[in-house]
Amino acid sequence: MDGTESWSSVARAFSATGEKEGTIFPNPYQHGPLQIYFPEEDTQFLGLKISSPEGKILIQQKVLEEIPEQMMSTLPSGVYFIHLEFSDRLVAKRFIKL
User: Fold this and answer.
1) What are phi and psi of 70, to 5 degrees?
2) Which of 23, 60, 93, 97 could make an SS bond with 37 (beta carbons 3.0 to 4.6 A apart)?
3) 3-class secondary structure, 45
């Protein structure tokens, strides 16, 4: 690198595997249920875990489409990881609770 900076006009990029890995929304999260989406053709969904950045499991359940607001309201504001477990892989996503 020569120490110079340059910027591109790309505002957001998605990897080809991003959709296969699933999506959680809203992110950042403020209130309401936390929605979870993953493609229909995925292998069997086994469950999920929400952990702190230190790895402490805070929520664990077998649910397909959302985490109820009552569960999410127990988490203080901060950064968390959601681990989606499928029969053939484990996918981790980061989310922020405001």
Assistant:
1) -60, -40
2) 23
3) strand
Q: What is residue 69's three-state secondary structure? A: helix
The region that residue 85 occupies, defined by phi over 0 for left and psi between -120 and 50 for alpha, beta otherwise, is beta
Q: Residue 84 has what pLDDT?
A: 84
Which amino acid belongs to residue 19? E
9-38 pLDDT, tens per residue? Answer: 333 333 344 455 678 889 999 988 888 877
pTM of this structure: 0.70
Structure-block tokens of residue 83: 């681990």
Q: What phi and psi, each to the nearest 5 degrees, are found at residue 72?
A: -65, -30
CA atoms within 13 A of residue 81's CA, in its CB half-sphere: 13
Tens digits of residue pLDDT in 39-62: 666 567 788 899 999 999 998 988
Sign of CA dihedral 32, 78, 14, 90: negative
